[in-house]
Design brief:
Strand order of the largest sheet: 1-2
Number of helices: 4
Largest sheet: 2 strands, parallel
Shape: elongated
Order of helices and strands: HEHHHE
Oligomer: single chain
Helix content: 40-55%
Length: 118
């Protein structure tokens, strides 16, 4: 929800700032998990351990409502799979938005060449 709100604020800001000659662009990166340290196997293990601790501390009501499978859902998939290895395309979009005399309102930057399966 916060990303959607930020996008809406950016759209409004673009319209408000246009008469002042100030441009506002939205950069929407795709899947770049492999380019971030958050997907590093060591970091994932630390986060996995933290989730296990949260599960152990959860009340019986929470455990019965969500179930262990829900808690483990994030860790059942490889977030680096089908992900761009480098953030270069995002950097290029930022540079274009900053330096172009007529930048686009929205930059959709694909992070992988495959559709994501949810």
């Amino acid at each position: 929800m916060s990303k959607s709100a930020l996008e809406s604020v950016s759209d409004s800001l673009r319209l408000e700032m246009r008469p002042c000659g100030v441009g506002v662009s939205i950069i929407e990166p795709g899947k770049f998990d492999a380019a971030k340290t958050i997907s590093d196997p060591e970091i994932v293990k630390i986060r996995r351990d933290e989730v296990d601790i949260q599960w152990e501390r959860a009340t019986e009501e929470v455990k019965s409502f969500y179930g262990k499978d829900y808690f483990n859902l994030f860790f059942l998939k490889d977030n680096r799979e089908n992900s761009a290895e480098s953030p270069d395309k995002v950097i290029e979009a930022v540079v274009d938005a900053l330096l172009n005399e007529a930048p686009r309102a929205r930059y959709l930057v694909p992070g992988s060449s495959r559709l994501q399966k949810f």
